[in-house]
Every structure is written in structure tokens, then in C-alpha cells.
Amino acid sequence: MQKEYDVKKVVNLPTEEIDRIQKQIDAENLETIEKACNEYRISPLERDYLLNFYADGMSVYRDVYRTLYETFRRPERTCSVNLESGKVDCDNSGNPIDYGLKAVTPFTCTRLEYVDKFNNPIYIIFPRMKSADRAIEKLEKKYGKEYQTALYNAARLAFEKEDREAFAEKLQSIPQSNERLHDIIRLTITSKYLSGVERITQVLAHNHDSPKAKFYINKDEIRNRFTLPLSKNAKRYYDIKMIVHQKKDDKLLDMELQLKIQALYEADLRTHKIYEEVRTIEASLPNKPTTEDTLDMRQKTARIKILNNRIRQINENSIHQYNMMVLDKARRIEDDGYRPLRIEPDNKDGTYDQCRQFIQKEYLVESYDTFNPETAFSADNEINKLSFLRLLGKLETDFNETDENASKVINYKFSRLTLAEKERFNGINEIAHRYSSIIRRKILAKKKLEPIMQTPALSPKRGREL
């Protein structure tokens, strides 16, 4: 396992010492790559691809930062971030410490902080470069197998269907295993609201869509989970993913860029260890489909189902927390902007157009159930208490709501709210009532994205099949 370095200590080192540390890491990675190639665990083609990243990790990282600088310019602050908890180093007053750009290296985890034109924070999370060990593992156990499966399916065209022309065409279109490995460097950009994520996506895709540029983004490779119907997003995981093709010398290196809402990114941190357990269990299952049904397999399958349900619940909670934040913003627009000036509502139902537009633009659909403002954000629901406490910052980012003692903590902290905080909670509830028609309209629009399902035929004796 790669040694972890404390940013606080790293920034006090001479630049030559930082370079020396990275060169030592490069040497260890190169040794790992050569060994894997000699043991036929990776191909010479895969070896050469990995060398593009690991022969000089510092140079690659500097190029990546320059790429970001072209779009975002110099950050307001550069912090050290813990990728497990999401916490940043703070001073005695609780303010994040700005370590400067010297902190950005291939062996540290940093967060570059910006502010958009609406005064909302944008964070670029710069993790450590993926170790060569992990990259090789992905080539072996994931992308290599996918490539072999694709070759097998293509071969069937030639040998089973006797269509050699189709086989040759298919063969040329199959990406090599190393062409599937995009996340040796994986950056995450977070924004407070959905519109912020969409704006960043548009800027990146529009400004860097030319293959002649130093780096470019193919719009056809952008995957947007926010636009998926709910039936195609079982885990309620939302992000926008794009591949940045970075030119270095005469080569083309890929890095993965994930764009997320900050509240949902924090949910990712809480589900990371659960994902790792799922991945470990899945790796222990047979690679090929089998009719064997042992007790061990049933137990593992059941465990995976439990863990996936837990992941979905955490994600759903974070979506609800985000929606509560959206409604709280609408409340502040009314209370800070319109009511002090005694401006009458734009509509007979007491709503303001600006708040309508804001909710319509930012609210995320949680389910297709009819929105009930009486219960959606009431104090009778523990998820509402959890969401509000997170909104206030009264729970740590890594607070585990699936822990057996979580309920006691949530109810205790909620009972300790100040009068002003209780009024704020009630204000969110009132906004949910007042703008419920906008939320229902958004739910209906999302539901229309669902594929048309065939209605099962009715049986004369048993009625509709379930």
C-alpha cells in the first residue's frame, strides 16, 4: 500500500525533496508494472500505457493542473482533504487552512476552492494518483475480462454466423483494455446546486471540444445520470462523468472527471466502504454463470442485496437533504428579499416567480409518489430531522445514519434546536406547502421520461399478474 503523506509536512519541504519523494514512488510503480508484465498479468501494450502515467508522475500531475487552470484559473484556497471523511484541515478558529499550490502533488489529497458568480462554492477534489497496483488490478479483473468477452462475442459473428466482414468491422471498434482505464487520475468537481453542475459541464464541453486543443472532451462520451429515469437509477446515484483527453508530448492520456452536487458527494464518502465490501464479495463469486446454489453463495448474494439497499438509502437521504436545502434557499429569497420590502406575491397562491423558477430548476425528483406537503418535510419523519441537522452542520459529514445508535443521536440533537432553528425548519415546511404544485409538476415531467411499459394482460380468473 502506498504511504500516505501529511500535507502540513509536505508544504514545508523543499521542492527538491517533494520531487525526490515522487521519484521514489515512480520507481516503486515502475517495478510493479515490469513485474506484472513479466508475469504475463498485463500485456506489453498495457505496460506501455501505464508507463505514460507512472514514468514521471509529477510531470503528468503538473499538466493536469495546467489543464484545470485554463478553465478555472487560480483557486481561492488550496486545502488538505481527507477522502474518507471529507474533512479539511482547519485552524484554531475553525477556518480551512490554505496550504497553497505546493500542496498539489501526485501523493497528496487536496481540494481547490473557488466561488462562482452567484457566490456559491465550487470544489475541485484532487486525490492521489491511483497506485500502479490498483491500476493493474483493474486491468486484470475488470477491463481485461471485458475486452476478452467483447472479442469472444465478435468471434461468434465469424465462426457461428459465418459473417467475417462483420467480425472484422466489430474487431476494429472494440476498445483495448487500457483504453477503458480512464481513472488513474480521477478528479471530482462539486457545486452546491444542480444548475452549477450543469453550467460547469457546459463550459468544459463547449470550451474544450476540439481534438486539436491541448486537451479535449468528446461530448458523445459525457454520461449524465441526472437525466436518467428513476427505473434506470436503482441506487439513486447522480453525477455527470466525462473523459478528459490530455495531450502530453506525442501521446494522449485520459483522466476521469466527475461532476457532483456537494451533498451527494458527501453521500459518496459515506457509501465508499460499503461499495468496497460489495466489490470484495462479488470478486469471490464465480466469474461465469453457474447453476450451483450453495449456502455460501446464497449468503453472499443476500449480503450484497442488503449492502446495495443500504447504499440506496444513504443516497436517497442525501437527495432529500439537498431538496431541503433548495426549499430553505427559496425561504430565504422570500424572507430576505421580498417580505422586508413588503412586495406582494406574483401569484394568487402566495408564491413568487423567482422562487418558482429556482425550485423548478434545482429540485431533484425523489420518487414518482404524489408529493404530500403535509408529510414530506414534517418533524414526524426522522429523515427530515437528519437532513435538517446536516443542513445546519450539526452532524459530521461522515455521520453514519445506518448505525444502530444513529436514531438516538438524531432525536437528541433535534430536540436541542434553538427557537430560531425551529422557526427555520417550520419555514421550510411552509415553503413545501406553498410551492407543492411546482414540485408535483417536476415529478410528472420526470415520470414522462420512463419507457412505456406494456400492460400485462388480464386473466379472467386471477386478474392482473403482479
TL;DR?
The chain has 466 residues and is α+β, with helices and mostly antiparallel strands. The strands form 2 sheets. Strands 1, 2, 3, 4, 5, 6, 7 and 8 form an 8-stranded mixed β-sheet that branches. A two-stranded antiparallel sheet has the order 9-10.
What would the keywords be for this entry?
466 residues; alpha+beta; eight-stranded mixed β-sheet; two-stranded antiparallel ribbon; 16 helices; 10 strands; 52% helix; disordered C terminus
> What string gives the helices and strands in order?
HHHHEEEHHHEHEEEEHHHHHHHHEE
Stretches where pLDDT is under 50 for at least 5 consecutive residues are 454-466
**SSE class:** alpha+beta
End-to-end separation in angstroms reads 50 Å
Number of strands: 10
Spatial shape: globular
Proportion of residues in helical segments: 40-55%
Strand content: 5-15%
> How many DSSP helices?
16
Counting copies of identical and different chains, the oligomeric state is single chain
Detailed description of the structure:
- Helix 10 packs across helix 13 (382-392) and helix 10 (295-338) packs across helix 15 (419-434).
- Strands 1, 2, 3, 4, 5, 6, 7 and 8 form an eight-stranded mixed beta sheet that branches. Strands 9-10 form a two-stranded antiparallel sheet.
- 52% of the residues lie in helices and 11% in strands.
- The chain has 16 helices and ten strands.
- The longest helix is centred in the C-terminal third of the chain and has 44 residues, at 295-338.
- The protein has a domain at 299-447.
- The protein has helices at residues 7-10, 15-38, 44-54, 57-72, 132-159, 164-173, 177-180, 194-207, 262-284, 295-338, 353-362, 373-376, 382-392, 406-415, 419-434, 436-447; strands spanning 77-80, 110-115, 121-126, 186-191, 215-217, 223-224, 240-248, 251-261, 458-459, 463-464.
- The chain is of the alpha+beta class.
- Strand 7 and strand 8 (251-261) form a beta hairpin.
